[in-house]
Structures are given as C-alpha cells and as structure tokens.
Design a protein that fits this description.
Elements (H helix, E strand, L loop, with lengths): L3 E4 L3 E5 L4 E10 L3 E6 L3 E7 L3 H10 L5 E2 L3 H9 L4 H11 L1 H8 L5 H12 L4 H4 L2 H10 L6 H5 L5 H26 L9 H14 L8 H23 L5 H21 L6 H15 L1
Parallel strand pairs: 2-6
Antiparallel strand pairs: 1-3, 2-3, 3-4, 4-5
Length: 285
C-alpha cells in the first residue's frame, strides 16, 4: 500500500453515482496517486500520474463544488495544473476566478515539500512526483521558499531559470532559420514535436556536441533522432513491432533528411547521413 502523504480538507458534495450527498476528502499518496474518499471509506475517484502540486490544488478546489461526477472531476484536475485554459474557464465559472486564483497561490504544505525532497533525494525519482521547473514556478509565485535540498534534485532558483531561458533562446535563435526550413519541408509533425527537437538541440549545444557537425547536418540529425526515438517507443508497445520494421522507418527518415539537406545545398548520401546520425546518437547516449 502506497504511503499517504496528504489529506485534503473535508467537504460535503452530492455524488452523482450514489445519488446522495456524502462527506468527501481528497487523499494524496506517494507514487502520484490521488483518491477522493467518501463515507464510509469508499474510493469514488482515483487518478495516477499528475504531479503532486496539481493534486494538492485539486484537493483545495474540490470543496467549492457542491456536486461531483465523472464529467466535472477531470476538469478540476486539468484546471489544477494551471495549463488548461478550457478547464480553468469551466472551474472559474463554477467557483469564481478570484477563488481559483486564491487557491492556486496558497502556500504549499510542509508535508508536500517533504514528500518532494524524499522522492528526489532518497529515491532519485523527482520527475515521478514533480518536475523541477514546477517547483521553481511555485518559488517564483511565493508559495514555496527556497531550500538547500532543492539543489540536490535539480531545482533552479527563479533567477537561474531566467538566465537559462535567455541562454536557450540565444541557442535556438541561431538555428531558427534552419528549423523553419526543415519543418516546412513538406511534412506535418505532431503537437509538441518541435519543442522536443529544440530541447535536444539545447542539450547537445550545452554539452559541446554541435561543434562536431555543420549547422544543417546537426539540425537534420537532431530531427531524425527525435523521430527515430518516437518510432522506438511506438514499436515497444505494438504487438507487431520488430527490429526490421524499425530500421526501415529510420532509413525512410534518413532519406527525407537527405532530401532536405539537398534543398539547403548540402550533398549527402543516405548512408553517409546515417553515419552522422549514429555519431550524434552516440554523443547523446
């Protein structure tokens, strides 16, 4: 049984599935598990995978609802992240924008902070409970204070984060014309893919790998690497996945990148480009 970390405020709400008003409270467990407990000790709703800060905010938003059902609860969770504008609007219509903002700026309880530090230092799994940048965000908001333990789990101060953002903007701006050219080269990409590519670029530049390639080959290899990594993830969950199919998919992407390089005035055979791709992937391992 996962350890109980936090018990939210008790409240009463009509539970649609039961057709009656019940006493409720939100429970947060380790391993990013959230439950809504109703009397008598019945779990009405459970969620896994949210960061612990968002689960805390969900605990604090729910008491403002006089009824809960399977349609409302997901909106509460999404609004609790502060990132979903549609969910935020739904929640704000119900509880009021001022109440929502007040909840989102409440101090983070000590037991939540202790759980974050424990997960990060003792278990080495900070990303499983709360990404470091979310902690920085709370420090910036004034809902958490800086602690020396945060340094051990990769959390930056707001000032350090600002400097890093400036550095990343400078790196990406150098490659932006090539990125625009690559991503406009006759193919659509899934949401978030370009951001993944940019993150890999920043990481590679900061580690000095970019110096090993010309700019255009570097961008083509990074984008191809990102796509091949996505293929690998896909093949791992599909029943028909095998290495031959994966290799053909990667080779197909190499041909696409070689075509783009040609449009940029750079001549590479697919085999030559594959060598560059493997060299990059070796650096990134």
């Amino acid at each position: 049984m996962a350890e109980l970390i936090y018990v939210g405020p008790e409240f009463r709400a009509n539970i649609a599935d039961l057709g009656k008003e019940c006493k409720c409270k939100g429970l947060i467990y380790e391993d990013s598990i959230f439950e809504i407990e109703i009397d008598p000790d019945i779990t009405y709703f459970a969620a896994v995978g949210l960061d612990i800060i968002s689960m805390l905010r969900a605990c604090e938003i729910m008491p403002y609802f006089n009824s809960l059902n399977d349609d409302v609860v997901p909106f509460i969770f999404m609004a609790a992240t502060g990132k979903d504008s549609e969910a935020k609007n739904v929640v704000c219509e119900k509880i009021g924008g001022n109440v929502y903002e007040e909840v989102m700026f409440r101090k983070v309880p000590k037991q939540i902070i202790k759980a974050i530090i424990k997960e990060g230092i003792e278990k080495g799994n900070i990303f499983g409970i709360c990404k470091p940048e979310l902690i920085t965000q709370e420090i910036r908001k004034g809902t958490m204070s800086w602690r020396k333990e945060f340094r051990k789990i990769g959390v930056r101060t707001p000032e350090e984060e600002d400097r890093q953002i400036e550095k990343e903007i400078k790196i990406i701006s150098h490659y932006q014309p090539l990125l625009d050219s690559y991503f406009n080269f006759g193919e659509e990409y899934p949401d978030g893919f370009i951001e993944v590519v940019k993150a890999i670029i920043v990481d590679a530049v900061e580690k000095g790998f970019a110096e090993e390639f010309s700019d255009s080959v570097f961008i083509a290899a990074i984008a191809t690497h990102a796509k091949s990594f996505g293929f690998k993830e896909l093949m791992s969950i599909l029943p028909f996945g095998d290495s031959d199919i994966f290799q053909k998919m990667v080779l197909s992407e190499c041909f696409k990148s070689v075509s783009w390089l040609k449009s940029e005035g750079v001549s590479f055979s697919p085999r030559e480009f594959l060598k560059e791709l493997l060299k990059l992937q070796k650096f990134l391992m």
